[in-house]
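Case study B.
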Amino acid sequence: MVFENIKDIDLTHTFECGQCFRWVPDGPDAYTGAAGSFAGRVSLSDGCLNIEATGGDEEFWRRYFDLDTDYGAIKKRLAESEPLIKPATEYGYGIRILNQDPFETIISFIISQNNNIPRIRKNIESLCRAYGEPIEGSGLYSFPSPEALAEARVCDLAELRLGYRCEYIRASAERYLKEGCPETREELLEFHGIGPKVANCIMLFGLRDTAAFPVDTWVKQIMNDMYGFDLKDTKGMQAFAAEKYGDLAGYAQQYLFYYYRDRSHK
DNA sequence: CGGCAGGCGGTTA
DNA sequence: TAACCGCCTGCC
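Model:
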């Protein structure tokens, strides 16, 4: 399917800004990967977003790529409320915050704790291969269901090299099944293995709370560099983001994160 | 070998 | 409630 005349989108910005782990580059302006139980190849040409997917209707992909949100207006509002963020919004001009499946987001960000991105990706693919279903014609696997992970044995999960996160994963899947999908930050924090940072990531990426402002080691460094916050003053950073960016704090976090992490790699 | 990576849970003062 | 510590693993 094709979505025409899409502005403010760049696949590298969107897939490499730290919000998802299952998409890999596949040619210029193209990525291949999976979202939930669908696989696909996505490419961008002349303002058209082309999606060749194994499933999912137009509404699904429109929502996944957040095509109904006006990112031009968001960048403008952010730069007006805080001029220091403008270079970051220009650098990552094509970031879009994906609407990802809540359960997939919960497990993915539990895995992300005290971990590095290459290994997070590897762990998630292992988990999908072991507990997901093959997605026909793609060579990929769906993200595992809550049922599949709740029934998993911790020692089997350990073979996937998930480390001490194994028990968090199993217990969280069980709780999700029993209690239903969490809807608030407080409910997320009751999950074993979900703390303040991971909860904010899930709120932002899985539950569409764009006011959520995940403070990770990168954001701490950024807030220290830009505003002189003490590296331990997470609460101060949260309060600053809420006051300065309000409902757009989540977008601000993504622009800042991508800008600074990318530059530090050069 | 120690340090570290997109933290968290548990213990202690 | 703030400070500290250990933690699976893999790569430096």
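The first helix of chain A runs from residue 11 to 15. The remaining cases will be described in the next quarterly update.
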